[in-house]
Amino acid sequence: MSKVDGAEVAKHDSKKSCWIVLDSSVYDVTSFLMKHPGGAAILLKQAGTDATREFAKYHPLSYVNDLPPGSLLGAIDANTLGNLRSPKEETLTPLKTSDTDKEIPHVTLCVTCPDFEAAAKAVLPRKSYIYASGSANTGLSIKANLDDWGRINFRPRVMRNVGDIDTRRSIFGHSSPYPFYISPMGTLGAIHPGAEPEMVRGAVRKGAHMVVSTASTRGAQEIMQSYVEEQKRLNNASPTRLFYQYYMPVDRKKAIQLMHLVKEAGYKGLWITVDAPVLGKRTADRYLQAEEALAVGIEEEQPSEWESGHENTFAPAMGGRVASGQLSPHTTWEDLAWIRKEWDGPIVLKGIQCAEDAKLAYDYGLDGILLSNHGGRQIHTAPSALMTLCEIRTYCPEIIGKMEIFVDGGLRDGSDVLKALCLGATAVGVGRPFLYALAAYGSQGVERCVDVLAEELSTGMSLLGVTSLDQLKPEMVNASRLLNEIWRPESLRSRL
Ligand code: HEM
Ligand SMILES: Cc1cc2nc3c(=O)[nH]c(=O)nc-3n(C[C@H](O)[C@H](O)[C@H](O)COP(=O)(O)O)c2cc1C
């Protein structure tokens, strides 16, 4: 293939013809513009330029293999790089760029989870902050997540010799110093240049478990490699284990390939996300996309084929990739049978939002469920995980203690973890606080965030009157407000 001149690439800078350079190769992405799950605007902004640096924030290089056949035009002529266009002017003022020389408080000044958000907001580009903080529709789901932790009160016991506190908890037999773990979050390359491996290093140093997202910037094997290296540095002393969050590829063969790859890499459990058959309406992202589209001269961006969730020509092609965030609207409970054949480790359904599905998951023999509404990013006016837990306590209490039950969404104080555990949860997932800590301080921030939560947790235990987590009981909390508001069947039944 002949070399392509930078001046020629620079000419193809519109939606009629859009070329970009990635890792010294020139690609014609014109036919891919409307198929790109991240939108056409971001590609058009890079049209005629070397997009390698921007691309690496979001994707592993292997993504180029998923471009339509014939997209590769050849290698860029290295002597003509100066003729390339520079990316279109950033018309949206970033909050600030992600350079590390920005003034942010010293990490020790972060003493609560919200402090990490303030620090992250100061360093993250606007697009990244919107991606992280965003939620669905009018924001009522995320509001319920945040509020409901405060709608349960403790019922502390006193004079109980609480000098010696043990906060340990196991997840599928893997002990951790804490009953909380880092939730899976995609595209961490847009949050910190070290992306997922940087988060992993912080987790390993503190012994916290972490669930890795299918939509990670770095591949599943590379992330596991960073885990192995950090463990080695610590003489394999860290109890941290990595689990894998699984967005099911639409194509069965690719779905199986991905599962095998994840298993071989050493992930300890599969957390299948079931609350995202299609992407929720991420309102703040939509405003931004519209602004970006206008800035590059597309009046209105149609939802990409992938986003619309209909028959989907793109997703199957992405299926076998190590890291790709595709959603399959076709998954049903029946799929669990073949998944079980391919994956012999623990399986958790992530995104259970009512007692009926919790019971079904139990009947289908799942190892665990995660009560979650995806951090308020999927369905509008979703129940909080605590509300769903109260529903389970009321309508199918028999499943509590028989399978591992996790909750996530809106946890911002370590002592709140105790409320979920009193009501029967195994552990709590924490998302954004870790993401913000990573954004502002890298792995050091992740460590600090673990410390903040752990200290609040341990203090909370002493003040509640317990010394170990197995002493927690439902009567140690007053959950009446949530219990009063749970769903009631129209015809009275006491069990599902
Ligand atoms: C060249 C081939 C490309 C392919 C096959 C591709 C594929 C994808 C896929 C599958 C997603 C969905 C989420 C995920 O898996 O992470 C996505 C999202 C995204 N992509 Fe690309 N992409 C390409 C190029 C680019 C380039 C050049 C950029 C930036 C310069 C970019 C920026 C983004 C962004 C910002 C998102 C949204 C991330 C999010 O909100 O989660 N992509 N892309
Ligand atoms: C920026 C961001 C990205 C996320 N990406 C994923 C993902 O790729 N897969 C997934 O199952 N959940 C994802 N989630 C949801 C989290 O796993 C978790 O359910 C949620 O963040 C918990 O709420 P919290 O952020 O309020 O703690 C994401 C959440 C955020 C904030």
Helices and strands in order, then pairings?
Layout: H1 6-11, E1 19-22, E2 25-28, H2 40-45, H3 52-58, E3 72-75, H4 113-123, H5 126-133, H6 140-150, E4 153-154, E5 169-171, E6 174-176, E7 180-182, H7 195-206, E8 210-212, H8 220-233, E9 242-246, H9 252-265, E10 270-273, H10 283-295, H11 305-308, H12 314-318, H13 335-342, E11 347-352, H14 355-363, E12 368-371, H15 385-395, E13 404-408, H16 417-422, E14 427-430, H17 432-464, E15 477-478, H18 480-485
Parallel strand pairs: 7-14, 8-9, 9-10, 10-11, 11-12, 12-13, 13-14
Antiparallel strand pairs: 1-2, 2-3, 4-15, 5-6
The protein binds protoporphyrin IX containing FE and flavin mononucleotide.
The site of flavin mononucleotide (FMN) has 25 residues, from helix 5, strand 14 and helix 17.
